[in-house]
Amino acid sequence: MFDIGKYATVLFDLDGTLLDYRSAQEHSASLIIREMGLADVPGSMDMVLDFLGGRAVQDLEACKPSAIEPSSGEMRQAFRRAGLEVDPPKFLDLYFRGLEEHGEPLPGVPDLLRRMKGRYAIGVVTNGPGIVQRRRLQLSGLMEYLDLLVISCEVGRAKPDPEILRLAMKLAGSETFSTLFAGDSAGSDMGAANAAGVDFVFIQPQGDFTAPGPRVLELVRTAELTGYLGASG
């Protein structure tokens, strides 16, 4: 039986774990399409969303060392391969502006964090630009529940690099054995947890838990963690 009471610190991924990342991306995509005159392009929404989920944007969003400069020829080629004949810097500026405007918590998350507050050190470890993620947390109303916040673009480490989790543990004053990390990405979140030696809760809204890797619990929704709080006494 999983017992959350053995942990002193519970860390969460942000996008797709606490906040509705898909809706935020759709909001950004709508803004991009409207501002860049793509409304008449067939399949523009799917095209933009597919590109936003691709490595070129995701690496840039996380501030990974592999990220391509927005104004570089390589980035322009990536846009062209995706069928997007637009100005990359403007497109990306609109994307981050759209994200910053959207901070919708996933169902049940505010209640979960409210119930955990004071019983655990609660933290968020997220990839993304600092100003964007902080604004989204403020909009969500979740910031008041957090004891610590570590953002990749502010600390120069991005998941799955385990150092970003080790930094969070240092801030919390916790050890690996007393820390739990919950996230929805096998590559980014589970990869960081496993490399750091931290127990991991794998959250998969589609119920697809086929990705390999150690975890102590599998959940379809983050809010399901509420059902385990009673075990902590």
Summarize the structure.
The protein has 233 residues and is α/β, with parallel strands linked by helices. It has ten helices and six strands; from the N terminus they run βααααααβαβααβαββ. It folds into two domains: 4-20 and 104-232, HAD superfamily/HAD-like (Rossmann fold, 3-Layer(aba) Sandwich), CATH 3.40.50; 22-100.
How is this structure best described in words?
It is a single chain. The chain is α/β, with parallel strands linked by helices. It has 2 domains: 4-20 and 104-232, 3-Layer(aba) Sandwich (Rossmann fold); 22-100. Helices cover 42% and strands 12% of the residues. The chain is built from 10 helices and 6 strands, in the order E-H-H-H-H-H-H-E-H-E-H-H-E-H-E-E. Strands 3-2-1-4-5-6 form a 6-stranded parallel sheet. Strand 2 (121-126), helix 7 (130-140) and strand 3 (148-151) form a beta-alpha-beta unit. The mean pLDDT is 96.
**Number of E-state strands:** 6
**CATH homology-level superfamily of the largest domain:** HAD superfamily/HAD-like
Task: Give the averaged pLDDT, no decimals.
Answer: 96
Query: What strand line-up does the widest sheet have?
Result: 3-2-1-4-5-6
Provide a count of the helices: 10
Major sheet description: 6 strands, parallel
Report how far apart the termini are: 15 Å
Overall structural domain count: 2
Q: What is the CATH first-level class name of the largest domain?
A: Alpha Beta
